[in-house]
């Protein structure tokens, strides 16, 4: 293991990029020099790191040979544009946008699958599902998973957060509402989709959940039915989960496995349950609650999950991947 590693973060001024900087410091990651990069519009800003202010530089002018590891925390198009340069410079790459052809990794679920110098940190719902379901693989043979992912507006970046705040203020002050970032009112409302559907009605995020979850859990035949809705919550994704097993399920055994699962906090007290605002936001674990069998049938288990989508669902998972990576870097 090297004593230190020089790192670049592309998209450093976004919510996830800023949190990456914070998590690297909090976990005492062996960073040598940290280069924070963004678009021309964000260049010149500064981010605090270990008692200093790091100046944000334009990614287009950056020499990637200066670093050994690059986090891509920007839009997929940015990752696709600059990852080849980073790869040619010999950098290891962790892609938080899911743009590259690399293994998707959730360390609590498939750390052993990381055998290359490139990895994808999956979308937030997949992180939550993988952390909760990976401990159950020895007990269950899942056949079908149905999940409704209630996505916070921060999944749309800083613009999503600003839009919810603006809409809320306008409505509370009885001013006319003109949606900007979202196609309609999101404040005090629920939107049935996150982004635009494809020709058959599926969202790109729903397809990512299907593909990435089957890969991370190493269950290629698992049937995944995902629905992503936009909810008027600033931070914290929440998921309703229904899993149909090949055989009968034992809720007691499932409860025991979840209670000791790494990266998971199970709320077991009857009548209690976790929420994004009250529990998950700012925390490093996935919260689970409302564990229960189906009303009819012995093969189904139902569950509620919530996590900080920016922290646990993105930045922390990426840093945990980097902690696996650094063991193999010379």
Give the topology:
Blueprint: E1 5-10, H1 15-26, E2 31-38, E3 46-49, E4 52-55, E5 57-58, E6 69-72, H2 76-88, E7 92-95, H3 107-110, E8 118-120, H4 124-133, E9 142-151, H5 158-172, H6 204-217, E10 223-230, E11 237-245, H7 251-259, E12 264-266, H8 276-280, E13 286-293, E14 300-307, H9 311-325
Care to describe what's here?
This protein has 330 residues and is α/β, with parallel strands linked by helices. The chain has 2 domains: 5-101, 3-Layer(aba) Sandwich (Rossmann fold); 127-309, Dihydrodipicolinate Reductase, domain 2. 29% of the residues lie in helices and 25% in strands. The chain is built from 9 helices and 14 strands. The chain has helices at 15-26, 76-88, 107-110, 124-133, 158-172, 204-217, 251-259, 276-280, 311-325; strands spanning 5-10, 31-38, 46-49, 52-55, 57-58, 69-72, 92-95, 118-120, 142-151, 223-230, 237-245, 264-266, 286-293, 300-307. Strands 5-2-1-6-7-8 form a 6-stranded parallel sheet, with helices on both faces. A 6-stranded mixed sheet has the order 10-9-11-14-13-12. A two-stranded antiparallel ribbon has the order 3-4. Helix 1 crosses helix 9 and helix 4 packs parallel to helix 6. The longest helix has 15 residues, at 158-172. The radius of gyration is 20 Å and the shape is globular. The N and C termini lie close together (6 Å). The mean pLDDT is 94.
């Amino acid at each position: 293991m090297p004593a230190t590693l020089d790192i670049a973060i592309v998209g450093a001024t976004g919510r996830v990029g800023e949190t990456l900087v914070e998590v690297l410091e909090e976990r005492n990651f062996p960073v040598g020099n940290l280069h924070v990069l963004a678009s021309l519009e964000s260049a010149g800003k500064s981010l605090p790191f270990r008692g200093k202010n790091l100046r944000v530089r334009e990614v287009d002018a950056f020499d990637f040979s200066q670093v050994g590891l690059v986090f891509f925390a920007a839009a997929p198009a940015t990752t696709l544009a600059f990852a080849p340069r980073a790869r040619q410079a010999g950098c290891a790459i962790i892609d938080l946008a899911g743009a590259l052809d690399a293994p998707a990794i959730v360390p609590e679920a498939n750390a052993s699958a990381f055998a290359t110098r490139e990895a994808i940190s999956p979308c937030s719902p997949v992180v939550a599902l993988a952390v909760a379901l990976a401990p159950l693989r020895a007990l269950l043979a899942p056949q079908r998973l149905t999940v409704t992912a209630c996505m916070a507006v921060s999944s749309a970046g800083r613009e999503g957060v600003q839009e919810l705040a603006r809409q809320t203020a306008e409505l509370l002050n009885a001013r006319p509402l003109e949606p900007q970032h979202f196609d309609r009112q999101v404040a005090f409302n629920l939107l049935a989709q996150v982004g635009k559907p494809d020709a058959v009605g599926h969202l790109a995020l729903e397809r990512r959940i299907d593909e990435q979850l089957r890969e991370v859990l190493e269950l290629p035949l698992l049937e995944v039915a995902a629905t992503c809705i936009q909810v008027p919550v600033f931070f914290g994704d929440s998921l309703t989960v229904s899993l149909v097993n090949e055989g009968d399920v034992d809720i007691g055994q499932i409860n025991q496995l979840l209670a000791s699962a790494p990266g998971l906090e199970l709320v077991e007290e009857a009548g209690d349950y976790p929420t994004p605002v009250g529990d998950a936001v700012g925390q490093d674990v996935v919260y689970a609650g409302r564990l229960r069998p189906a009303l009819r049938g012995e093969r189904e288990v139902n569950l509620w999950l919530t996590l900080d989508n920016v922290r646990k669902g993105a930045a922390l998972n990426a840093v945990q991947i980097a902690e696996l990576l650094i063991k193999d870097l010379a």
